[in-house]
């Protein structure tokens, strides 16, 4: 009897499997018919290896680097935008990415687009030895003059099958030539990883692999030595507390310390189901030359915290990470998804472990360079030279010889500023807005020379994905507006109009079949480990004052530019630098004094901005200080 029951159960399973297979075959046939009706002959049962071989063959046809001046890059998503602030040339590098047409057919890119802010020019580079087309790769600039690229993904035209690259490429910033790093042992194939630079290393963290049936997220850490072009994996003790595996996170380095924040992962939400999870934790790692000693440490949350979001990553700049936009899924079921999109600009102070929500201010008039300012520069230079002379720390020349031979750092900067202003008058003028760009996620961002650049991004309306074609710039030292190089939001307007029409149609329909719909209501996905989220450490209460880690150093005043701050406090910084650098002399000491003043100005930026905001609310837009060096008679 037991044998018969077992046999009947097996027969039922076989019948059920046959029915499922038949149903799947019908579904595929239906899709193919719909595809042909739409005029699309491309079927998605294309071998990815064959596609990649064809791309490699097409790539080999290039005999040399082909350069062309373009108006702007082709619209794309999931590319990389990286700043290369070299001394002789400062450029932005846009590589790779993907676009999808109205039929859902995806096209991948491997062109290199380079933007020069000085000449306001885009150039497109195509070469024989460039990496194959890809998106969602990781790319980072190293001050030695190279870019390092790793991984990324490529898919069949309709994205039914994926290929994750595991290769590493080196781009020479000057020549724009690519070279593949030939090494057998390195990070596995992945997408959504992040990179940071430290000394002679490029550090890679996390990412994911889409295996079709499920997605695997990673939490490994690798170091790429730019001297030897070799990868080394960081092996952590099994007992050590580790960040969760994730992709699309923030990953920056400051003062020999790594900072990892947020990201996205998937957790189990029932049998055969996964639910997306947005991470909001912060981890740090003190960097050492002996990688066996590297350890992760979780940071305790304090002060104001941003709302959870993904699709945005920090860009490192002078001790802080800047982050724009993002998205958060409010409600996720097996069939539906509702999301909230952001267009806020946030900053994270690495030294104080605090977040700030940045706001735009009214644009102020450009300062006119007057003779008084030049006199103050000369006066400061005389003071600095006298300090060095009295301390017997000049460069072995007389004070007069120093004045004749030495070019003042501030004077050079002032000349450069004047030259840039003259160039701006010749250049094309772009509109400046007093509001941040439209909400979006996965925007490409980078920072160079205090300018925060935003390229493209994605916005969704239901199941409609809008690829935004736009390019902006924000001066994060002033926050006085958003420069719009170009902006095309037509896809958003079209998607919004279509959704309004659909809503009207649904309202006119009868409510027949409500009972049937009730039986098939989407089951809300609940992560199996959501219960643990409540155990996360409590956030410390917000303190009104921003703590000052170095109160003995001069403090910037409200509405005081970096230049004016140094003119006022340069002598104090020089004295402090002399005490801390006994082996340095002359020019080197003055350079260090200016660097320290610049660091201090940025260090107290948030505190000064809060003071400025309070003053502006009171109607004060500027502070004019009396010059007590000039005597006046009372009448």
From TrEMBL:
Coiled coil location: 402-429
One family name in Pfam for this protein: DUF4110
Lineage: Eukaryota, Fungi, Dikarya, Ascomycota, Saccharomycotina
Key words of the record: Coiled coil
Span of domain DUF4110: 548-632
Protein name: DUF4110 domain-containing protein
Stretches with biased composition (Basic and acidic residues): 7-31
Biased composition (Acidic residues): 498-520, 528-537
Organism the protein comes from: Pichia membranifaciens
Domain of life of the source: Eukaryota
Stretches the record annotates as Disordered: 1-40, 494-537
UniProt-listed SUPFAM superfamilies: Kelch motif
